[in-house]
Design brief:
Low-confidence stretches: 436-441, 974-995
Distance between the termini: 120 Å
CATH class of one domain: Alpha Beta
Mean pLDDT: 86
CATH architecture of one domain: 3-Layer(aba) Sandwich
Number of strands: 76
Structural class: mainly beta
Helix content: 10-25%
Shape: flat
Largest sheet: 5 strands, antiparallel
CATH topology of one domain: Rossmann fold
Radius of gyration: 45 Å
CATH superfamily of one domain: P-loop containing nucleotide triphosphate hydrolases
Number of helices: 15
Strand content: 35-45%
């Protein structure tokens, strides 16, 4: 049992409180990415990456929460066998379910096996099926004319016979033979396992007084029952629920716990966890790192790491489990100094030695001689089991000797807890009197002692500050280095690669002996598991290993610190000695025993969990996002259950972004964010490192930052509008909203209803929608519904046949047919007669029309954009507009804000119109005089942008000296300024409603002093036919008010 520890297993338990889907575990499987999948009978499936559980259930597409088996197919899909829901195949995006409709014998799936040919064998409630490429390619539901019923497992023995574990027939071969089970003993076979010798092992449910497992020899066709252990008293129900063989050929058996057979003996295997009931052990599973997972029926999931550590205590021969120091002699023997005396390990066996005195230091000199010291003022020279004691201090006043080292002449130097310093010569201690700056201290405790390659002695003390000194020419000097005052308690001194390493109670210090550069490493700045550094050594790869005061062991590769937890208790993680022996094995001396540490050999896996780019993107091989994305955040996860999520370190780079394309330093951060990446193509690469320094393969994702289509369309829309002199780059939130909505609707074929007061640019917006749509190369036909001749509305819109009415001398195509493939803009839709509204609704619903006088319908492909300044809901109430047509037209409504609600755009619009008309009139572009903008913004603008345009046109013509002044504006003085007694500007209408047409007419008439005709008339201001304006005035009973006192 060389590579697995059964006495001390690092373990942890996971339950539903940790995110596990359920407490009744049925199967476990590790996929090719490294994820661990756990099937439960009471909650669906969980996926575990050592950091978090992802749970999949009914809402995710799993057909049943009772999941009995897991297998991975040749395409990397995970197949889940459910009890009642068939097989659910998961491809990373969703589930596809296969049932009896796809050829399965039953929807009760009891087991799944991946086959060498890539197919999956499904054991079901009604037989066996071979499943491949989403279909059942073969099934067996009967043997010898009898239905198979439930099948739990299938195996082919060394002789080529395929056996089934069935509920009704026991162990049955495909050719109909039953294995000779004793019906009085065995019932209900569950699981098969084949060992390297060809034996077939069978776990089953049975009645008896002993724990048994079946072993079938295919050569002599003999079945034997192997006694694994004693069960309960009397004849009771037993169940060896699961059996498997591992790569070593060992047999793992579950029966109220776990038993392991190494080919010679049976060993109990259990996690060192309190309050765990192993009576419901369902199965064991070994992942790629060699970790053992135990699935419990009702107890959740147990993780066990049986290979990382092997712990030795008094039961293995140690005098005491509290280890103080370690050493290795030339023969490869490990010398172990404990609180209860010395011990030596040779060929894996520990024997206690000598005095029973606490051992505080061990040195093996250049000749292979072992020296030790303790707390009784003696140094011991070990020759066999009877060490020679050399007195350093009087026995009546014992001193602890923690400082022990060898100099260049082979002499052993000694430092004690009471300021004594000297060397061993001729088995005698020679004290050295020092002239020192320590005269202010009564006692100088030499806690550690080191001679560097230049022959300089370094001493580390405790309880004084500074605590680091060096000796030269009979004098001790405090170390003259940066941050020396921070070094108050030195635990260990060590030289490595011309650097002095100082382990203190407040972190790790390093001193470059050439440059005198000092570095300090602490938990706060560098992620050390603990600041107390108690021991130091290096391995053959150059990694530095450190024992800590409660933080386990630290490994440092020159860039990154990573910690190794040696057990759940504080004593197990207080490490006062570390040793890398001549064979590269690592030994740690703890307060809870000697630990032999075995680094891992399986590199970790790495997955990119998700990419956030404004929204959560599928972390596939290529992701795309628009250039307007403010941040791209990538989250990744290294998978090493042995190391744990907290000890994974990551390095990454973004190719195409940084010209140097250098890898970042390894850190614990499992996510990285990039802000405002320029439009381009990038490749993000990441790698992870586990606690033992093993690197994963590089994982990558292509990132394509694309031109922002939405922004580009808005710019295109603005360019179209700007070219028509109605819109500059708007600062108005309301107008920006309209633009964004226009972008979204332009690329569709939806019918659009544009609402807005007269002069806000409804026609221009309709033309813009057409110009930015896929129909832009087809006709744009505009119809003013209010200006169509009475009686000819339908003919104008829908066309007529020859002779349809008097004067119809030939066929004429209507506006709908002329706009075929393009856009038809129906302006003033509120003025369309009711009968024409009926025909229009029919065309919109059927995409076909019938010409006036015609009989055959004509198919048309027309996008309709309608516009009005009327309140259509009021028109519906008045019976002037069809409600069904309104809802058909208002599928998507755009509402243009009046100019008075976007005053922040007035300065830019005024300057734009001034520049345009100055060029038109061949004049210098005028500037706006101080006060002009405020004057313009104080006006209510009943004619909106069109009125502003005309006003600036006149001002350019009238202004003098290249400056437009307030007097050049000729703004009406009646009722249109903030603070006047005139009625306030009408509020913005609710979405989907028309505007107050009567109020618009009144404001326009007042602004033009009730003039109707001409360029200064209200009709021109409103963009309306003068006769139509008179018609609307009659409709609203609008009359010019009489002049006061005249009666006129």
């Amino acid at each position: 049992m060389s590579d697995i520890s059964f006495a001390h297993v690092l373990s942890s338990q996971y339950t539903v409180f940790d995110g596990l889907a359920g407490m009744h575990v049925e199967d476990i499987c590790q996929d090719r990415q490294g994820f661990l999948w756990i099937a439960t009978a009471d909650g669906g499936v969980s996926r575990f990456d050592s950091a978090r559980f992802d749970t999949f259930g009914l809402k995710d597409g799993l057909p049943n929460l009772t999941v009995m088996a897991i297998a991975e197919d040749a395409d990397g899909r995970l197949l889940f066998g459910t009890f009642g829901g068939g097989i659910a195949a998961y491809d990373g995006r969703g589930f596809q379910v296969y049932t009896t409709e796809h050829g399965l014998p039953s929807n009760e799936i009891l087991g799944l096996q991946a086959q060498p040919d890539g197919s999956i064998v499904a054991m079901t409630g009604a037989g066996v099926a071979w499943f491949a490429e989403g279909r059942c390619i073969r099934s067996i539901t009967e043997v010898g004319g009898q239905p198979l019923g439930r099948v739990y497992d299938m195996a082919t023995d060394a002789a080529g016979t395929t056996w089934l574990a069935t509920l009704d027939w026991g162990v049955l071969s495909l050719d109909g033979r039953c294995m000779g089970l004793d019906e009085g003993v065995s019932q209900w076979p569950w699981k098969f396992a084949q060992d390297p010798s060809g034996h077939l092992w069978i776990s089953f449910h049975y009645t008896g007084s002993e724990v048994l497992i079946g072993r079938y020899d295919p050569q002599d066709q003999h079945l034997a029952f192997i006694n694994v252990g004693k069960g309960d008293e009397g004849m009771v129900q037993h169940g060896t629920r699961h059996v498997r063989t591992d790569e070593r050929g060992w047999l793992w058996l579950t029966h109220r716990g776990v038993m392991v057979h190494d080919g010679q003996e049976w060993y109990p295997f259990s996690a060192s966890l309190p309050d765990i009931d192993f009576s419901g052990t369902r199965l064991t599973y070994e992942d790629r790192e060699g970790n053992i997972w135990v699935g419990l029926w009702g107890g959740g999931l147990i993780f066990c790491d049986p290979t990382s550590i092997r712990r030795y205590t008094e039961a293995d021969g140690l005098p005491d489990r509290e280890i103080r120091c370690l050493g290795e002699d030339p023969e490869g023997r490990i010398w172990i100094g404990t609180m209860g005396g010395m011990a030596c390990m040779e060929e894996g066996q520990i024997r206690p030695l000598g005095t029973g005195e606490m051992v505080s230091a061990i040195v093996v000199d250049g000749q292979g001689q072992v020296w030790s010291s303790g707390d009784m003022g003696k140094v011991y020279k070990w020759e066999g089991q009877a060490p020679q004691a050399i007195l350093v201090a009087e026995e009546t006043h014992p001193e602890e000797i923690s400082g022990l080292c060898e100099d260049g002449q082979g002499r052993i130097w000694v430092g004690t807890s009471k300021s004594r310093f000297g060397w061993i010569e001729g088995n005698r201690f020679i004290p050295l009197e020092c002239g020192t700056s320590l005269q202010d201290h009564r006692v100088f405790w030499v806690g550690s002692l080191l001679r560097d390659r230049d022959g300089v002695f370094w001493m580390g003390s405790v309880g004084v500050a500074p605590a680091l000194y060096w000796y030269e020419d009979g004098y001790l000097h405090p170390a003259d280095i940066a941050e020396a005052e921070s070094i108050a308690y030195v635990n260990v001194l060590w030289e490595h690669q011309n650097t002095l390493w100082v382990g203190t109670a407040k972190g790790l210090f390093t001193l470059d002996l050439s440059s005198r550069e000092v570095r300090r490493f602490t938990a706060e700045q560098f992620g050390l598991s603990a600041n107390g550094i108690l021991a130091l050594t290096a391995d053959s790869q150059g990694n530095i290993w450190m024992g800590t005061s409660g933080g386990g062991v630290l490994r440092y590769d020159g860039e990154t610190f990573q910690s190794i937890r040696l057990g759940p208790s504080a004593l197990e993680n207080k490490v006062e000695a570390v040793l890398c022996d001549c064979r590269g094995r690592l030994w740690f001396g703890t307060r809870a025993g000697l630990v032999a540490y075995q680094p891992g050999h399986t590199p970790p896996r790495l997955v990119i969990r998700e990419v956030m780019a404004g929204t959560l993107l599928d972390a596939s091989e290529v992701v795309s996002c628009p250039g307007s994305t403010p941040e791209i955040r990538i989250h990744f996860q290294g998978i090493s259950f042995r190391s744990g999520a907290g000890q994974m370190r990551y390095s990454h780079r973004l190719l195409g972004h940084d010209p140097a394309e250098q890898w970042s330093a390894f850190t614990a951060a499992d996510a990285v964010a990039y802000s405002t990446l320029p439009v381009d193509e990038y490749r993000f690469e990441v790698r992870t490192m586990d606690r033992d320094g093993l690197l994963s393969e590089v994982t990558s994702v292509e990132i394509r930052v694309l031109p922002d289509a939405k922004t580009e369309r808005i710019h295109a829309l603005e360019n179209v509008l700007r070219a028509s002199d109605h819109v500059v780059h708007s600062q108005s939130w309301a107008m920006r909203q309209v633009m964004e909505q226009t972008v979204r609707v332009a690329e569709t074929a939806m019918t659009v209803l544009v609402l807005g007061e007269t002069g806000t640019g409804k026609g221009l917006l309709a033309q813009t929608i057409h110009e930015t749509s896929t129909r832009r190369k087809r006709p744009f036909i505009q119809v003013n519904c209010g200006a169509l001749p009475a009686g000819l509305v339908e003919s104008e819109l829908f066309g007529h046949e020859k002779g349809a009415f008097t004067g119809a001398a030939s066929r004429q195509l209507g506006r709908f047919e002329l706009a075929d493939g393009g856009t038809l803009f129906l302006d003033e839709i509120g003025d369309l007669p009711l009968e024409s509204q009926r025909v229009l609704l029919h065309i919109l619903e059927e995409n076909a029309l019938t010409r006036v006088g015609g009989k055959q319908p004509v198919k048309v492909d027309v996008r309709v954009i309608a516009a009005t300044n009327r309140d259509l809901r009021r028109a519906i109430q008045e019976g002037a507009f069809r409600e069904d047509l309104f809802y058909r037209l208002s599928v998507f409504t755009l509402e243009l804000p009046p100019l008075r609600q976007r005053q922040e755009d007035i300065p830019a619009l005024a300057a734009h119109f001034a520049e345009r008309y100055a060029q038109h009139l061949r004049r210098p572009v005028p500037t706006l005089d101080e006060g002009v903008v405020a004057h313009l913004q104080g006006y209510a603008w009943p004619g909106n942008v069109r009125e502003l345009e005309h006003l600036i046109h006149r001002a350019v013509l009238l202004c003098e000296g290249g400056v437009i002044r307030v007097g050049d504006l000729l703004l009406p003085s009646v009722g249109h300024r903030a603070g006047d007694s005139a009625p306030p500007a009408p509020p913005a209408p609710a979405a989907g409603e028309g505007l107050d047409e009567k109020q618009q007419l009144v404001e326009a008439l007042q602004a033009t002093n009730w003039m109707i005709y001409g360029e200064r008339g209200a009709a021109h201001l409103l963009g309306m036919n003068p006769e139509k304006l008179r018609s609307r005035m009659r409709h609203y009973k609008l009359q010019r008010p009489k002049k006061p006192g005249t009666g006129k």
